[in-house]
């Protein structure tokens, strides 16, 4: 039986389809839903000489965080407020999805087949593939 569904959201159309699928599944099973948006942290690149490091990637601005929260609110608008939780985490997407599912005791994970990386470019399923391989629970990949 499914009691708790974790849905990974990144703003792409497939992640929005995944949220709709999870909503339908939650209605059928009476499950609660956690919507998760994962922000990738800036990367530290070693320059090698003089033990220097360079930070690659942008720092998150308050405007970006507000946009993420608005997007999660929009996705959650059709869900009963008592059945949905929204979480924003910083980390590597697949690893964060799997570890949060463990931490929350989610019975099921729903992800889109392809999503967007922070630069707005399509990922070719690398996150969903990694989640399926490491989740240790049922995962539905929505196309």
From TrEMBL:
Residues 1-143 form the UspA domain. Gene3D superfamilies: HUPs. InterPro entries: Rossmann-like_a/b/a_fold, Universal_stress_UspA, UspA. It holds the Pfam family Usp. It comes from the Bacteria. This is Nucleotide-binding universal stress UspA family protein. Belongs to the universal stress protein A family.
């Amino acid at each position: 039986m499914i009691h708790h569904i974790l849905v990974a959201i990144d703003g792409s159309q497939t992640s929005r389809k995944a949220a709709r699928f999870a909503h339908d599944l939650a209605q059928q099973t009476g499950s609660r839903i956690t919507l998760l948006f994962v922000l990738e942290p800036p990367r530290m690149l070693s320059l090698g000489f003089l033990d220097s490091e360079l930070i690659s990637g942008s720092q998150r601005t308050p405007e970006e965080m507000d946009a993420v929260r608005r997007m999660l609110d929009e996705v959650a608008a059709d869900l009963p407020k008592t059945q949905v939780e929204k979480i924003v985490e910083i980390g590597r997407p697949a690893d964060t999805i799997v570890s949060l599912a463990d931490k929350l005791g989610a019975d099921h994970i729903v992800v889109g087949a392809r999503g967007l990386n922070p630069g707005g470019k399509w990922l070719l399923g690398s996150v969903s593939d990694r989640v399926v391989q490491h989740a240790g629970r049922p995962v539905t990949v929505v196309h």
